[in-house]
Amino acid sequence: MALERMKAENQALQSELCVLRPMLCVAKTNVELESHLKLERGETRKITTALKKAQDLLATEHLQFKQEILQDVKHQTSTNKEQQMALERMKAENKALQSELCVLRPMLCVAKTNVELESHLKLERGETRKITTALKKAQDLLATERLQFQRKILQDLKHQTSLDKDKQLTLERMKVDKEAFKSELHAVKLMLDLSKTNLELEFESNLEFERAETRKTTAALKKAEDILQTERLRFQREITDLQETEKSKTTCLAQLEAQTSTLMGALNEAQQELKIRTLQWQEENIVLTAKLEVSHVIHLAQLEMHASEKKTFVSLLQKKAEEHLEWDHVLEQLMEEVGKTKTSYETQLEEQQQANKKLVDNLSEAVQKMERNCIHLEEDRLTVLRDKERLKYNQQMEKEKWQETESYLKSQIECQTLKKKEKKKWFKWKGNRPTLRQDSTNVSHDLQKKGQKWKSCKSTFLQASLRLERNLQEREQVWQEEKSPLLQSTDWPTNHLQ
C-alpha cells in the first residue's frame, strides 16, 4: 500500500509539473531577474536534495515494507506498529514535499528575453521527455514489483521454503532499480542546472487558477489516501480471514480435505479477479496520463507557433490570454473526465466488496454445514461402535455361558458314564440298559439345542453388523448428496463474478 501511495504522489507531482511548465513563459521586468535567478538556484538545490531524500526514503520504505509483510506472515502482532510508523513517515514526507512545491510555485516565473525563450523551451522539452520516460520506467517497475510481491505472498503462504531465494532476487532487483533511478535523478539534476535561463512571470489570474488547482489536487490526494487506507485494511482483513480458515481446516477430518481445497481454489480465483480489476484500473490511468501528455504536447506546439508569429508585445498578450482561456476549459474537461472515472471505479470497488462479502458468507455457511455433518457422522460412528461393543459383549457372555454349560454337560456325561459302568455291574441281568441310553440321548439332545442357540445368536450378530454397515453406507450417500448442492452454492458467486 505504501508503494501505491508513492506512485500516486509521483503522478500528482508529475501533473503539477505539467501544469506549471506552460505557465513559466512571461516576464514583467528585467530588473527582477537577478533576484529571481538567485532564489531559483537555491530552490533548484532544495528540489534536488528533496528528490534525493525521496529516492532514499522510497528504497528504505520499499525494503521495510517487504520485511514487514514477511514478518506479518510469521508474527502478525509485531507488524502493526511498524506499518503505522511507516505511514506517519510517508505522511510527513508528503507534507514536506507539498510545502516545498508551494514555496517553489511563486518562484519559478523568471525569464530574460524572448530570444532565450526558444532555447529554454527546447531544453525544457528534452527535460520533460526524459522525466516522463524516467517516471514511466519507475511506474512500470513499481507495478511489476507490486504484482511480483503479491504473487510471492501467496507462494509464501503455500510454500515457505522458497522465501530465501525470492528475497535475494527482489533485493538484487531493488538494487538495480535504485542505481538506475539514481542515474536518472543525476541526469535530471544536470538538466535543471543547465536550465538556468531566465523565466518570465505569468499573469495574476494564472497564479490564482494555479492555487485553486493545487487545492483541488490536495483534496484529491487526501481522498486517494483515504481510499488506499481502506484498501490496506481490507487486505489485512482478508489475510487474517485466510489464516483463520487455514487454522480451522487443520481440525477437520482427512476425508474433508479435498472439499476444502476446492473452496480455496474458489478464493484464489476471486483474488485473481481482483488483481485483474486492479490491472484494468492501472491501464485506464495510463491511458488518461497519455491523453494529458498529448494535450501537453499540443499546447507546446501552440506555444511554438505563437513564439514564431509574435511581432508585437500587445498582440502576443492578447493571443496568449485567449489560449489560456481555452487551456483552462480543456483542463476543466479533463478534470471532469478524471472525476467520472474515479466515481466509476469507486462504484466498481463497492460492487466488488459486496460480492466478496457474499462469497465469505457462503463459505462460512458451507463450513458450518460441513462441521455439522462431521459431528453427525462422528455420532453415528460412535453409536455403531457402541452397538458393536455390545454385540461383542453379548457374544462373549453367550460364549462363556456355552462354555460353562458345555463343561457342566461334560462333567455330567462323565459322571453318567461312571454311573453307567457301575450300574452295568448291578443291572446286568435286570434289563435296565434302555434307561441309560435314554439319559445319553437326552444329554445329546440338550447339547444340540445349545448348539442351535449359539448358531442363532451368531447369525443375529452377523445380521446386526450387516445392518450397521448398511446404515453407514446410507449415511455416506446422504452426505454426498447434501455435499453437491453446498459445492454448487459456493461455486455460484465465482460464476457470478465471472
Overall, the morphology is rod-shaped
Weakly predicted, low-confidence segments: 26-31, 110-115, 432-438, 492-498
Strand content: under 5%
Major beta-sheet overview: none
Count of helix runs? 9
What is the C-alpha radius of gyration, as a whole number of Å? 44 Å
- On the 0 to 100 scale, the average pLDDT is 66
Amino-to-carboxy terminus distance: 26 Å
Helical proportion?
over 70%
| Oligomerization status of the protein chains | single chain
Q: Which structural class should the secondary elements be placed in?
A: mainly alpha
Number of strands: 0
What does this structure look like?
The protein has 498 residues and is mainly α. Among the domains are: 1-251, no CATH class; 387-418 and 435-497. Helix content is 89%, strand content 0%. It contains nine helices and no strands. It has helices at residues 2-20, 33-74, 80-104, 114-158, 163-194, 204-251, 257-309, 313-426, 433-497. Helix 2 (33-74) packs antiparallel against helix 3, helix 4 runs antiparallel to helix 5 (163-194) and helix 7 (257-309) packs antiparallel against helix 8. The radius of gyration is 44 Å and the shape is rod-shaped.
